């Protein structure tokens, strides 16, 4: 990424290389820095002599002279989700032994993903180089295969270990070099699942880094360059086409160009296309992401200052996080990166982002302006801050023109969806029940949270304009539904379409850093539509 302001350039930090392996060896014989045991509350049950009843815990405690049971009692460790207990105890080949709570029962990818994150945190603290993970319960939940369980642990470890230190002058490198997963079997199938988890996790990290990058670094041109790099890396299956402002004008993308007009940084319309390395294409899909690399988020009063400007906003409106307004595009390109490595057969995927900045200048849109989208529909701009949907309008028309059968668009679109669903759940809007079912099946594998919202057609009355085909915002009530109804106007009726409003989960609510949300789900969805 090339810097454009402030002489800021991200450091080129390589991701730590960790060797993951599934092994079947006796837990007492494993040698390393940290032996991590995932336990449920049931696993922590003890007999009348305060001895473990679980076979694995009983064996470990015997080798440790009863110290594990004693430590768990003294520190009130009961196996609740999020609890951890790590001690340096003599008697095993590992320097440290840790118990990590999984809750009442471990029945979802999220539980084992959380285990991986907790193990990564403990490995950081202990500066551990070699770690092993074993589950006290020998049987995986019926809903999850052992391979999927291992994959979730690997994904949690990779993402838990990762810290985005590219913009810090100093950073510590994690010491973890290897992680063995014990007791879940061995062989090609579980190895394939582990490799898949590594690929998707690295794609999620890529997406996080895009969202975390400040707007003075990640301009529309820089985002286009990052997308082009993906296509170059996997040129056997991916191609890139970056449309210039003039080319967008020829395609009559007035809605998109209206948003981009005020910025000194020109817009870049980004189109990546995945085609399988061999075999026929049976399904054509499109992933469309909102790509506002910065949104000036005007709410109250523009306060002109020496050397730049700042904008006074209402309570809870953090303009400094508006760099995350391209979270939809990060999800789309993260998925492209993963799919470029996985190479599914039988499916063609178009990754489309209308990237630009929403800024303030004498050339920018004014309230009351009318813009014309590339399908000929006219839009009265009654709110210049509802700009994301204007860029998506032309992106959706373009996607339909690629001859796709299904479209999923992703956007940090409305605060209304965050109010409705909170910071960790994305809203799903679609008139197609089958498409909704596909998405929710994909999310079961990824562990990400979605909730289907209504597309109440009667609300469209509030979106009608007296002088154009529509306005770009309706009333305050049902804001997320109104936004979805607006986008629906730019999708061909023959195309199955879904809108995902991810304004809440794009950032970690506590740390205010990117989550890489939806990348894993999108990859799963594409694979379910493939012949692989």
From TrEMBL:
Single GO MF annotation: metalloaminopeptidase activity
GO biological process, one term: proteolysis
Catalysed reactions listed for this entry: Release of an N-terminal amino acid, Xaa-|-Yaa-, in which Xaa is preferably Leu, but may be other amino acids including Pro although not Arg or Lys, and Yaa may be Pro. Amino acid amides and methyl esters are also readily hydrolyzed, but rates on arylamides are exceedingly low; Release of N-terminal proline from a peptide
GO cellular component, one term: cytoplasm
Domain of life: Eukaryota
Record keywords, A-Z: Aminopeptidase, Hydrolase, Metal-binding, Protease
UniProt-listed HAMAP family: Cytosol_peptidase_M17
NCBIfam families: PRK00913.2-3
Name this polypeptide is given: Cytosol aminopeptidase domain-containing protein
Source species of the chain: Gossypium trilobum
Phylogenetic classification of the source organism: Eukaryota, Viridiplantae, Streptophyta, Embryophyta, Tracheophyta
């Amino acid at each position: 990424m090339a810097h454009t302001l402030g002489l800021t350039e991200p450091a080129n930090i390589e991701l730590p290389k960790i060797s993951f392996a599934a092994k079947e060896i006796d837990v007492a014989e494993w040698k390393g820095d940290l032996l991590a045991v995932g336990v449920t509350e049931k696993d922590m049950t003890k007999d009348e002599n305060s001895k473990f009843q679980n076979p694995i815990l009983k064996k470990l405690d015997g080798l440790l002279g009863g110290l594990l049971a004693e430590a768990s009692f003294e520190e009130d460790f009961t196996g609740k989700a999020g609890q951890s207990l790590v001690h340096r105890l003599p008697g095993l080949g590992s320097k440290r032994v840790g118990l990590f709570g999984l809750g009442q029962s471990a029945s979802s990818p999220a539980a084992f993903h959380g285990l991986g994150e907790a193990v990564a945190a403990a490995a950081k603290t202990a500066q551990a180089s070699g770690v092993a993970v074993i589950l006290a319960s020998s049987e995986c939940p019926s809903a999850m295969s052992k391979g999927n369980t291992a994959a979730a642990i690997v994904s949690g470890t990779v993402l838990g270990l990762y810290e985005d230190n590219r913009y810090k002058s100093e950073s510590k490198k994690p010491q973890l070099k290897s992680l063995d997963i014990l007791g879940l079997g061995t062989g090609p199938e579980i190895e394939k699942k582990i490799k898949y988890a590594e690929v998707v996790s690295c794609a999620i990290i890529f997406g996080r880094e895009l969202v975390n990058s400040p707007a003075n670094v990640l301009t529309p041109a820089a985002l286009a360059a990052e997308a082009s790099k993906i296509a170059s890396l996997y040129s056997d299956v991916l191609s890139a086409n970056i449309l210039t402002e003039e080319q967008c004008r020829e395609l009559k993308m007035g809605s998109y160009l209206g948003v981009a007009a005020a910025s000194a940084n020109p817009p870049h319309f980004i189109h990546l296309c995945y085609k399988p390395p061999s075999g026929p294409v049976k399904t054509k899909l499109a992933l469309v992401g909102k790509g506002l690399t910065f949104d000036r988020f005007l709410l109250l009063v523009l306060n002109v200052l020496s050397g730049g400007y700042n904008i006074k906003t209402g309570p809870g409106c953090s303009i400094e996080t508006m760099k995350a307004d391209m979270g939809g595009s990060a999800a789309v390109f993260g998925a492209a990166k993963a799919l470029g490595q996985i190479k599914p057969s039988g499916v063609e995927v178009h990754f489309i982002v209308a990237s630009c900045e929403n800024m303030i200048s004498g050339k920018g849109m004014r309230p009351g302006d009318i813009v014309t989208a590339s399908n000929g529909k006219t839009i009265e701009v009654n709110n210049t801050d509802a700009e994301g949907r204007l860029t998506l309008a032309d992106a959706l028309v373009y996607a339909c023109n690629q001859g796709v059968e299904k479209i999923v668009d992703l956007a940090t679109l409305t605060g209304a969806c965050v109010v409705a669903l909170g910071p960790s759940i994305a809203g799903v809007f679609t008139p197609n029940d089958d498409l909704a079912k596909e998405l929710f099946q994909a999310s079961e594998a990824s562990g990400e949270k979605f909730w289907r919202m209504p597309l109440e057609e009667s609300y469209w009355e509030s979106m009608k304009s007296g002088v154009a085909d529509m306005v770009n915002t309706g009333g305050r009530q049902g804001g997320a539904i109104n936004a979805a109804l607006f986008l629906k106007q730019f999708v061909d009726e023959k195309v199955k379409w879904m809108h995902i409003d991810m304004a809440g989960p794009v950032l970690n609510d506590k740390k205010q850093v990117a989550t890489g949300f939806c990348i894993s789900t999108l990859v799963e969805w594409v694979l379910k539509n493939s012949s692989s």
